[in-house]
User: What shape does this take?
Amino acid sequence: MASKLLILIISVLIILAGILYFFVFTGIIKVDSSRPTDATVEIDGIVVGATPIKERVRTGVHQIRVFKGGFETWEGTAEVSRSASLITVKLRFLLRSDPAGAEVIMDGESVGETETAIDLAPGVHSFEFRKPGYQSERFNAIIPTNASDPLPVVPLKVAEVVETQIMEEWVSREPPSEGYGVIQVTSVPDAQVSLDGYLKGETPLTITNVHVGDYVITLSREGYRDLRKTVYVKKDETTRFAGELKPESTE
Assistant: This one.
């Protein structure tokens, strides 16, 4: 009987110690990013998820790293106490070209060379990339309020090449109509999804914040023939596309 009572007392003490540790020696850290809206978060060298995220950690100072491809990485520290700590970051866009080292003219003014990081206000911005020995490339970029996608890597052609470089998604063109819609893509079998030549992910896939207008969806999978279809996105509506890929000929 005495031994059972002792075991019960020890169990209660262990539970109380765990509760005490949980509420006294740990705290909540919240990390959010206004741009992009889905940046990867790393705490003390360990990836814990994507913004916005809430994580319980030991009290004290922690190293925070927020990053996403095409954006400048943010690094800093946060001191976590028993009360919640909030970190909100806004990553800057990277201006990128292939090859690098091109001068970038934005809205008529030089802003540096690629890989320069720059803060872009929502709206339409014009860009020109110049590099000696290469053709200049121009395009317009439409930056939404809650941007999630990076600017494209601009491919530069040597001056001897006379063909016009076409960038399907970011090429200089008339800004699309105001408003956004959603594209939902499914396929049999699952396949990679490209929108106007830019890879977006794998089916089943939902693409949000798509400007109103025409887009070319391409489904591709190794061993199957590519499937392409032009769809029109309407404001505040969901455009659905279901495709069935055919195997490549075995002959």
Remarks:
- The longest helix spans residues 2-24.
